[in-house]
Amino acid sequence: MEEVDHLAHERSKTQFDVAAMKIVWAGSKHEFEISDRVSRLVASDPVFRKDNRAVLSRKELFKNTLRKTAHAWKRINELRLTEEEAWELRFYIDEPAFTDLHWGMFIPSIKGLGTEEQLQKWLPLANTMRIIGCYAQTELGHGSNVQGLETTATFDPKTDEFILHSPTLTSSKWWPGGLGKVSTHAVVYARLITDGQDHGVNGFIVQLRSLDDHSPLPGITIGDVGMKFGNGAYNSMDNGVLQFDHVRIPRDQMLMRVSQVTREGKYLRSDVPRQLVYGTMVFVRQYIVFNASYALSRAVCIATRYSAVRRQFGSQDGGIETQVIDYKTQQNRLFPLLASAYAFRFVSEWLKWLYTDVTQRLQANDFSTLPEAHACTAGLKSLTTTATADGIEECRKLCGGHGYLCSSGLPELFAVYIPACTYEGDNIVLLLQLARFLMKTVSQLGSGKKPIGAISYMGQVEHLMQCRCSVQSVEDWLKPSIVLEAFQARAARMSVTCAENLSKFSSIEEGFMELSADLVEAAIAHCQLIVVSKFIEKLQQDIPGKGVKEQLEVLCNIYALSLLHKHQGDFLATGCITPEQASLVNAQLRSLYSQVRPNAIALVDAFNYTDHFLGSVLGRYDGNVYPKLYEEAWKDPLNDSVVPDGYHEYIRPILKQQLRMARL
Amino acid sequence: MEEVDHLAHERSKTQFDVAAMKIVWAGSKHEFEISDRVSRLVASDPVFRKDNRAVLSRKELFKNTLRKTAHAWKRINELRLTEEEAWELRFYIDEPAFTDLHWGMFIPSIKGLGTEEQLQKWLPLANTMRIIGCYAQTELGHGSNVQGLETTATFDPKTDEFILHSPTLTSSKWWPGGLGKVSTHAVVYARLITDGQDHGVNGFIVQLRSLDDHSPLPGITIGDVGMKFGNGAYNSMDNGVLQFDHVRIPRDQMLMRVSQVTREGKYLRSDVPRQLVYGTMVFVRQYIVFNASYALSRAVCIATRYSAVRRQFGSQDGGIETQVIDYKTQQNRLFPLLASAYAFRFVSEWLKWLYTDVTQRLQANDFSTLPEAHACTAGLKSLTTTATADGIEECRKLCGGHGYLCSSGLPELFAVYIPACTYEGDNIVLLLQLARFLMKTVSQLGSGKKPIGAISYMGQVEHLMQCRCSVQSVEDWLKPSIVLEAFQARAARMSVTCAENLSKFSSIEEGFMELSADLVEAAIAHCQLIVVSKFIEKLQQDIPGKGVKEQLEVLCNIYALSLLHKHQGDFLATGCITPEQASLVNAQLRSLYSQVRPNAIALVDAFNYTDHFLGSVLGRYDGNVYPKLYEEAWKDPLNDSVVPDGYHEYIRPILKQQLRMARL
Ligand SMILES: Cc1cc2nc3c(=O)[nH]c(=O)nc-3n(C[C@H](O)[C@H](O)[C@H](O)COP(=O)(O)OP(=O)(O)OC[C@H]3O[C@@H](n4cnc5c(N)ncnc54)[C@H](O)[C@@H]3O)c2cc1C
Ligand SMILES: Cc1cc2nc3c(=O)[nH]c(=O)nc-3n(C[C@H](O)[C@H](O)[C@H](O)COP(=O)(O)OP(=O)(O)OC[C@H]3O[C@@H](n4cnc5c(N)ncnc54)[C@H](O)[C@@H]3O)c2cc1C
Ligand SMILES: [Ca+2]
């Protein structure tokens, strides 16, 4: 096979320093180096190969993931990887596995909800994987409304134990990853009952399986919830179902940082504020935003490279056809997604900072920024995961028919990504939470309470309600202050309008229910403003590397202006811009697309993804698409024989008109 | 298992005659009866059972489909089904299979492109399935641009044969359904070459496999292109790859209705106009629109029923929670999709009429309506398939976490549906075609040529450019004439603006490339207007049944007003409505949602889908969701054993800290 870079010509057109952009994308030189090294390590290890995941049976797929997980743990120990490196290693293996929940939910929950003693007992076991844990909250009948959970944990003062029980079918735990087949332990959420009184939902550490032979402990029924969306994808995860039949655990396995049950069965609340749990949620959700930028950038990388390889139409008399990336419709669909990938990366960087800031304040007993941080993280989780899920599917469509093949990598990327719109908070429920926060902020505006954090723009609400956009020419739309003000004005006006309309209802609750669709739109406007503003702030920093800042400025403008166009209804309805100004947005966008075009391949190269991680024939670094597509096709089991299994029983009798006689 | 209708209370609230609505949905009493009878026939036949398709291997899945196909053919003959009934039977089996292409593309292509003689020779063979055919147009390197195909058919006057050849890798046929493993014949599109001259792409009937033992004929390489998106889904279809190495076929296997090659190798064009082929495209695409209404209504049926079963939040002290269908955000996402399903059904009914009309005119040598019919069908194919693909995924999200399980039916429905956005014309390419037609229409407005058909509103362009929407109250938005005029004005203004902007470019072609994103938006506006207007026209007919027409009026208004809200940017930017009028749309929508709410379940019951066809635990008629979800889970192969395969090799060594020693 020839070793040609079919995209070399594209790469030769690059107008910026790709190596420098790689560091900007990674966050820092340090982070770049780790991810570069670890991703290559994974890519070069035969155990981590991804091939033919789409044709494996459920059992083969699952066993294969167990194999990779064990191998990863072996390598992490052999190479004495740091925590950060180990995290990256698991990430680049790129298969959902029970370890995601063990490291990402089980351990953090104990850290967040356990007492000092409990941490000392459980963390050493979990950190060395002598126990494996999962996070068992959701039930068959109860998801978003955690307060509605039915599982009970009843204190028995006689034995100093809790009795865990599943009173109904709908109280079965359902969905927890890692539960179905692997976890030995779980953090289980259940209604705490002492002396006949229900104290609401609390967390408990529960052992599920024998550490000797892995069989479920007495009174415990566990299984897998069955196949989920897609080939490979999330089916390597054992999302599980779990029922308790009066299962006893020692009292000290209730997570007691926030509330306690004494030996006598007394329920006490500690002075630790309940909001502490929000800290963990901010952590998990900022990580989800970070992942959104990964998933979207992968899809964009595939679609961009393939769009430069694919040619269609535009040739006079049989000459070479036009690269589809040169069509403005293709650019108009693709480049805003490219810009979004960068935008989400930068907003997630900021969220990481926000989380650190919140944590430090909590340690100093300063809870003042928590509600805003919590609301804004919830909103950004919703915004970025929805946009990423839709964006991956758009990238697939951008690849025409070939995007529908598993070998394109896009079907699996979509299938594995989409539950991010649902887990850790259904995206609509999260936007409604943010909307409540927005309405509260608006209602307090008169009271002298100054909005802080990402919502501080509301402090200038009077200006924002009546400011007029000053754009007069196409170029004016490149001014960050103008763009920012338009987004602020739109967000502020939508929130204020909602608040005004709410006040017309006899009860806020009734109004909130009735106007919830408008409230969701106001919340989205607020989130988009945050992403735009963090991108703009990023560009106010020093960014080294020839042409790097210029490219990012183009992307920032594309991100903002494509949103402005897509949501021009909001901007026009609130009078933030005029129809003439809206049409100038379109003209500016076309010019921005032309500026990105020669740099498009380099901008996706800057993600620094290995072909292993991309897992896509269409997205190959060398653009050698067609021979590889052809090669992949022949690997399908259906091609094992020329004449298919079933020919004699089912095809031949049709052709030979023998069906009346045949017994099928 | 108890036999309770968990949705009985919902059904008792219905305000219209469901039986009458079923007939409206089906199109007529006759069509209702056939589809009712045939769908039950399929549902009750054990061979057609759908269970566990998600866990079958590719080979098992494929063989199972062959089995169903053979059984279907047997039943069709035994029961002496009419053509219409046979079509329905295959439809309700609900698995993509080679027969789709045999009946839907191979036979129609021969009918469309063959001479009288050729029909007489080939149709009897195909109609009795003594041969099985597919449609081989697309190549590895060439899809949308059919004129770019590379396969050659070179006439050899010495032997009176064509030599079919694949000169390059990219010229391999790629994608044709039924090709990979089953078809004995194909209509192959190839460049016709006589005497060294290239006459462009023509169709040929080519035998691919031996009728004795099914092996590919000499010079022919065939295989399957490999796994496609999703579990089950389109993987029951053998989309194929095909290469010719100088394969000879008799001259009379060129489809010669439109052009001929004589015994001497002379290329002739018959006097049959080339536009004839458009007729076939109109036929295929109207069928795709029809299917869109099926696919979308299925998803909506599942999401609606489950939304009435699912409860979340809203209970004071542990009482029963609120049905999620009562949340306005849920309604705002779901009910416009319900309305779209009905809208697409009615527009497809109209397209069926249009096709008949066009065909009759063609027979009378009247080609006048063909370009408009062709453009409008292309646009509607694009509009409805895009909306349906997005709508299915939205329905899945509306079901929260459980929608992600294969047992919900929604993942497979999505995966099997989405290629409709790509095949039979990429949706963006189709909109650009329609846009060309729109621009041509606008450019001819001055010339006295009156626009006909669905674009006749352009005849009133002067009025539409300056009319002002008269809405003053929420109720005004219920007036069909007002809604219609707003949509007409928006579509006309967007087209005219595009045309004006185009004229500023030095060449139309350059302008068309540059402005293509705007042109696509104009084309969408035109298509939405057509769907709205056909829904309104439908309501001007007599519609029997208590309350039926009233419900349809509500749905029609929801369809139109939800689009108006979603695209309010267009309406505001073009000055068709004012911001105040836009906000009245929202208020009216909320009231319409309340009117649909009590009838929602009955409106999806009216689709008359069997549980077999729906294939969804969440969408069950009786709403008995939870026990069935639970039951399904245990069927997963991973649940065959309590301790999973791989425990001893890969889990135990981790827990027992033995990994350094273990060989994985
Ligand atoms: C792949 C996957 C992995 C998961 N992993 C875990 C895990 O490890 N541990 C665990 O405990 N759980 C896990 N879950 C469960 C997950 O957290 C829940 O699915 C999620 O919280 C959503 O809840 P739900 O499924 O009950 O949706 P529902 O809340 O039932 O949502 C159904 C619909 O109702 C709407 N809705 C609900 N409430 C409101 C409201 N108040 N207002 C308006 N609309 C509303 C929603 O928007 C949605 O459209 C996982 C789920 C998935 C899919
Ligand atoms: C499941 C499935 C079944 C199929 N069955 C058959 C079959 O039975 N027989 C058969 O012959 N074929 C079949 N096909 C092939 C199908 O017809 C093609 O995939 C389809 O025509 C799209 O062409 P493409 O894949 O080349 O996409 P491309 O044209 O390569 O599209 C790639 C991208 O380029 C864009 N683009 C292309 N041209 C332009 C333009 N002029 N302007 C702007 N943008 C442009 C598109 O919008 C898209 O975003 C099937 C495909 C699938 C997925
Ligand atoms: Ca399989």
Index terms:
664 residues, 11 strands, Butyryl-CoA Dehydrogenase, subunit A, domain 2, three-stranded antiparallel sheet, binds calcium ion, 9% strand, Acyl-CoA_oxidase_C (chains A, B), 52% helix, alpha+beta, binds flavin-adenine dinucleotide, homodimer, oxidoreductase (chains A, B), fatty acid binding (chains A, B)
What do these coordinates show?
Two copies of one chain form a homodimer. Chain A is an alpha+beta fold. The first copy, chain A, has a domain at 133-272: Butyryl-CoA Dehydrogenase, subunit A, domain 2, CATH 2.40.110. Chain A has 23 helices and eleven strands. Chain A has helices at residues 8-12, 18-26, 29-44, 58-78, 83-93, 98-113, 116-127, 276-309, 328-363, 370-398, 410-417, 427-443, 461-466, 480-502, 508-514, 516-540, 548-566, 568-573, 579-596, 600-605, 611-614, 625-633, 647-655; strands at 133-136, 152-156, 161-165, 173-174, 185-194, 197-207, 220-224, 240-244, 247-250, 259-261, 267-269. In chain A, strands 1, 2, 3, 5, 6 and 9 form a six-stranded mixed beta sheet that branches. In chain A, strands 4-8-7 form a three-stranded antiparallel beta sheet, with no helix packed on it. One flavin-adenine dinucleotide (FAD) sits between chains B (101, 135-138, 143-144, 175-177, 234, 239, 419, 422-423, 426, 428-429, 432) and A (310, 312-313, 324, 327, 329-330, 398, 400-402, 404).
